[in-house]
């Protein structure tokens, strides 16, 4: 019941290790008119994957990490080689803990389930920043929650610090001139950010 309730909220920022993928240009970048913004994975090291808060009873209620998504084939391959140490081992570790509660297990499952995905999405090579939080945490112990409109609904989100991009790739149908992009980046503190043109043919 705790797992299915709205007491455990999960927030995900989705990135990708595949810079040039036509399906992504079409779906996420205004039909290839937009940009791909590139960062180093190390730039997100502040999201260390450690629990960030415990209540007075010692229950963990907040977790933030960055991680490459594992797809089903990869997961089962590692398991068959006796190297699988993901979902099952962490849940079992939680169950064996003397301070374990049903809420702890549900919280871990909510976190771990965000780290796996079906094989059909494998070409995306997704990389996620995952923030799982228990709604019982007082607001003054959490970052400020923001809201945005998407597809006719109001979506809550937490803003995270964004590092300076390493590069920007202009989409195959980007209408802007490279000098305009350079001007924008320089005026926003990104003088060292490299500008590239997509090598993907749109047709």
Describe the structure.
- The protein has 203 residues and is of the alpha+beta class.
- The chain has 5 helices and 11 strands; from the N terminus they run βαββββαααβββββαβ.
- The chain has helices spanning 22-28, 72-80, 87-96, 102-112, 178-187, and strands at 8-16, 35-38, 48-54, 60-68, 70-71, 116-117, 126-134, 145-150, 153-158, 167-170, 194-197.
- The chain has a 4-stranded antiparallel sheet. A 3-stranded mixed sheet has the order 2-10-11, covered by helices on one side. Strands 5-6 form a two-stranded parallel sheet.
- The radius of gyration is 20 Å and the shape is globular.
- Mean pLDDT is 78; it is low at 52-56.
Backbone shape: globular
Amino- and carboxy-terminal Cα gap:
49 Å
Helix content: 10-25%
Radius of gyration equals 20 Å
Would you tell me the overall average pLDDT? 78
Largest sheet: 4 strands, antiparallel
How are the strands of the largest sheet arranged? 1-7-4-3
**Strand content of the residues, in percent?**
25-35%
Order of helices and strands: EHEEEEHHHEEEEEHE
Number of continuous helical runs? 5
Q: Got a strand count?
A: 11
Low-confidence stretches: 52-56
Classification by helices and strands: alpha+beta
In short:
This protein has 203 residues and is of the alpha+beta class.
Question: Which features does this protein show?
Answer:
alpha+beta; 31% strand; 203 residues; globular; 11 strands
Please give the structural blueprint.
Elements lengths: L7 E9 L5 H7 L6 E4 L9 E7 L5 E9 L1 E2 H9 L6 H10 L5 H11 L3 E2 L8 E9 L10 E6 L2 E6 L8 E4 L7 H10 L6 E4 L6
Helix pairs in contact: 3-4
């Amino acid at each position: 019941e705790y797992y299915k309730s709205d007491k455990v909220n999960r927030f995900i920022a989705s990135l990708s290790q595949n810079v040039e993928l036509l399906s992504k240009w079409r779906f996420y970048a205004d039909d290839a008119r937009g940009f791909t913004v590139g960062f180093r994975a190390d730039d997100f090291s502040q999201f260390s994957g450690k629990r960030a808060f415990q209540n007075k009873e010692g229950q963990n209620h907040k977790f933030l990490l960055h991680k490459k998504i594992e797809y089903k084939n990869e997961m089962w391959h590692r398991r068959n080689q006796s190297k699988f140490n993901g979902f099952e081992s962490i849940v079992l570790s939680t169950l064996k803990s003397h301070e374990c509660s049903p809420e702890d297990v549900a919280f871990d499952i909510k976190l771990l389930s965000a780290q796996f995905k079906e094989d059909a999405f494998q070409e995306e090579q997704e990389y996620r920043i995952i923030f799982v939080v228990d709604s019982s945490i007082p607001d003054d112990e959490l970052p400020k929650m923001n809201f945005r409109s998407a597809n006719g609904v109001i979506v809550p989100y937490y803003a995270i610090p964004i590092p300076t991009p390493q590069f920007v790739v202009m989409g195959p149908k980007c209408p802007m001139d490279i000098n305009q992009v350079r001007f924008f980046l320089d005026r926003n503190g990104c003088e060292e950010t490299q500008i590239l043109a997509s090598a993907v043919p749109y047709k």
